[in-house]
Amino acid sequence: MKFYLSMDMEGVTALPDYTYVNSSEANYERGRSLMTGDANAIIHGAFDAGAESFLVNDSHSKMNNLIAEDLHEEAELITGGVKAYSMVEGLDDSFTGALFAGYHARAGQKGVMSHAMIFGVRSMWIDDVEVGELGLNAYVAGFYGVPVLLVAGDDCACREAQALIPNVTTVAVKETLSRSAVKTMHPKKAQRLLREKTQQAIQRKQLVQPLVPPERPALRIEFTNYGQAELAAMMPGTELEQGTTIVRYEAKNILEAYRAMLVMTELAMQAKFC
C-alpha cells in the first residue's frame, strides 16, 4: 500500500496565527517543529496500518517548511518550489489513498487563517461547486482515482471536508475561536490522535470513494478587487465576467484547471505593484 500526504501549515496543532507560518516571523521555527510532529504522527499511523511506501509533499507557502532531518526516515519528501502542481505535486494513480493535514477552511469562511491560495481570492468554483484548496486538491486526487481518506486541521476545515467527501475521516486538532485564535489540543495528545485516526482511515479505506471531477470543468475565481481580476484575465483563454471580479476558464480537465488557477493567482498577486 502506498500513501500520499499533502501537508499544509495553517491547520497544524496549536498554531493560531501568521506569526507561526510566515518564515519572517518570530514563532515560525516553533510552527515548523509542530508541523513536522503532526506529519510524523500521520506517517507512523500509515505504517502501523501496513503502508509499504509513503510520500509527503510540503504544501505551505514556499513549500520548504518541514524539517527533513526530523521526519520519519521511511517517508520520502517533496520540498521547495516552484512545482507544477503545487499542493498535489507527485500525486498520481499509483497511490492507495491521499491524506491532507494542516488544512484550513476556504476563503470567506470561518476558520483559523482561512483563505484560498492567496489573500486576493474571495471564492473559487469548479462548475457550480464552491471549493477552496481542500476541494481542488481532492478533485485532482479523484482525477487519478485516489480517495482522500483523512483530513486533519481546524474544526472548520474538517466540516468542509465532510461536506465534500462522504465517509472521510477527519481530525480536528483545534477549534476556531476567531481567524487568529484557537482552542487547541496539547500537541502530544493531538499527535497520538492523528496516528490512531490515520490507522483507522486506512483500515476503512473501502468506504471512501474518490471525489471525481467534471470531465471538462469550468474554473471560476472571484478576486477581491478589480485590478487583481484584470491581471488574472491576461491569461489566454480566460474571460472576465462583466460587472464582476470573477474570471472564468473552461478547462480540458481538472489538471489544466488546477494549473490555470496557479497562473491566475500568481498574476493577480502582481496587483499590489500596480
Automatic annotation (TrEMBL):
Signal sequence annotation: none
Protein's recorded name: M55 family metallopeptidase
Organism: Planococcus dechangensis
Lineage: Bacteria, Bacillati, Bacillota, Bacilli, Bacillales
